[in-house]
Structure formats: structure tokens, C-alpha cells
Design brief:
Blueprint (H helix, E strand, L loop, with lengths): L2 H18 L4 H23 L2 E2 L4 E4 L2 E4 L2 H4 L1 H12 L5 H31 L5 H28 L7 H11 L1
Antiparallel strand pairs: 1-2, 2-3
Helix pairs in contact: 1-4, 2-4, 2-5, 4-5, 4-6, 5-6
Amino acid sequence: MKSKEVYSLLVRYLLLIALAIPNLFLFYFIFTPLTLYASFYALNAIYGATLLEGNVIFLRSIYIELIPACIAGAAYYLLLILNLSTPMKMKKRLKSLLFLFSSFLILNIIRIVLFASLALQGSQYFDISHNIVWYLGSTLFVVALWFTNIFLFKINSIPIYSDLKNIFKEIK
């Protein structure tokens, strides 16, 4: 391996560890206001919502609190893991990250608005659909985004495996 490749490998994995140590604080710090305000503006445009103290949106007769699970900081971190553990050029990596994070943010806002609409209508399907999306849908969002990312950016490497393969090739 060239020294540039070794340096890139070390930086990528050290960055992943460093971002996880403070309990994903950076992801929640960045994406909580983005998710909260975008969801609020969308709900306000549709229903005349009010933003209350904290992460609470009042929508006619219901209160919607965006808790950390709604923000999905761990999903952003998983997308970052997939990106940083895949060998690629820096320009492609940055475009890929921008696509992954912005797409997930948009999908998450749409999800929040749809569930707020279901809750407001008193839908009998709110609880079951919320639980299905919570346990299954969020994983499918991440997987679908990653495979879309692979297709759009023509990524031919496999996360972690490609790095390990390169390391073992050098050891032999």
C-alpha cells in the first residue's frame, strides 16, 4: 500500500471512532434543528402548526415531540460508517455523503409529516404503522439509500471488506 492509502485508511477509521465517542452528539447537534424546523415549516404550511419550547410542535389538537429516535442520529452515523469504510476518492466521498445525509433528512421529514397527518386524523393505523416504520422502515431507508448511492456514484468497493482485502494483500 502506498503511504497515501495508509494515511487515508487510518484517517477514515479514526474519524469514525472519534465521532462515535461522544454518543453521536455531533449528529444530533446538526440534525435535530434541521429536522425540527423543516418538519415544523412543512406542518405549519399544511396545518398551521405552532413550535413550542423544546422539540415540540403543536398541531391543532395534538403535541408532537421530536425525540432523538425521530431525529435518527444513529442512522446518519450508519450512513457515515458505510461511506467512510468504503475506499473511494475524496471528491466522490464528499458528494456521496452530501447525497446520503440530505436524502435521509428529506425522507425523515416526509415521514414525520405523514405520521403527524395520521395522528391528526385520529387514524386507527397510526400505532401499527409507526411501529412498523420504527423497527423495519428505518433500516430499509438506510439500505435503500446506500444501494442508490452505490448506483449513482458507481461505487465498486465493499465497506470494510475492500479495506481488509487491500491490507491482507499487502501483508502477503
